[in-house]
Amino acid sequence: MSHSISSSIPMRTLRAVSQLRDSLQPARQAGLTVGLVPTMGALHEGHLSLIRRARERCDVVVVSLFVNPAQFDERADLDRYPRTEREDARLAERAGADILFAPAAEDVYPAGFASCVEVLGITDRLEGAVRGAAHFRGVTTVVTKLFNMAQPDVAFFGQKDAQQALVIKRLVEDLNMPVAIEVCPTVRERDGLAMSSRNAHLLPGERTRATGLFEALEASKRLSREGERRADTLVAAAREALARADIEPEYVALVDPDTLEPVERLQGPALLAISARVGDTRLIDNAILEPSHQEISISRTGASPAKAPA
Fold first, then answer.
1. Is 47 a catalytic residue?
2. Is residue 291 part of a domain?
């Protein structure tokens, strides 16, 4: 349980790495636990659930807010990414953040910056295949920098970005970083759409169609609960659900959740991952399919273990 020393102290917004380190030094000297929630802002309930989880687990909660240019493969996507720092600060504080760390791009990537961190093997498929090698290189580089800046004991990420979470786990393991990674359930709208900052770009008709991603996951889950184990059949069910919503996917893949290698038959937990554009907005979603009686169910408030009906 958290023993926050700052529950009655207003959240501070810091810009410089030196300010962040100086602010965290008393907590470290006192042996308190520091949690980090990395975000790119435009906070929604998914982000807030991570902050609340960090509040439960850690004594001091840092929320970083940085729109990382290095992980965008399209300049137009970067330019239209929402910047709502004032509202983000209000929401982060209400959710339990102690520090909002919002550095400028020139401080994260100063003139002459020439280093990068790259994880190989699990970054060249799914999102990596669509977005290019630079995407995950940008993610792993900025996350490494944030870990060095904040030096957290625990960092919190969302299951909606399952591949990203896996890449960061591998990064931490391979480089012996002293930080625990906690992956928290996907948070969904009432109609099943996974919460995302990108959802704000959906036009009304597109917003309705976008629930097709959730329906596709549900279609495959229903088949797996009924005993279907063939990956091609499970993937086909998802594709059919997407087609009914007039959505052409970039990929629909059933893969090993630890290696992202394709599976041919559902013999253990497998990750069903989907990417698609709805209008001009690119969306991703995923679910774990489980062949045993111990199913992992998708709900509109996230994924949680639940026994299959007898």
1. yes
2. yes
The three-state DSSP-derived secondary structure of 152-218 is CCEEEEEHHHHHHHHHHHHHHHHCCCCCEEEEECCCECCCCCECCHHHHHCCHHHHHHHCHHHHHHH
Q: What is the pTM of this model?
A: 0.90
State the catalytic residue, choosing from 47, 135, 201, 293.
47
Residue 98 domain flag: yes
Residue 159 domain boundaries: 12-184
User: Which tokens hold the place of 231?
Assistant: 């990956």
Instruction: Give the C-alpha separation, 178 to 221, whole Å.
Output: 36
- Percentage with pLDDT > 70 across the chain: 91
Kindly report, residue by residue over 18-33, the tens digit of the pLDDT. Answer: 999 999 999 999 999 9
Are residues 222 and 152 part of one domain?
no
Count of residues making up the chain? 310
**CA distance linking residue 175 with residue 158, whole number of Å:** 22
Number of domains in the chain: 2
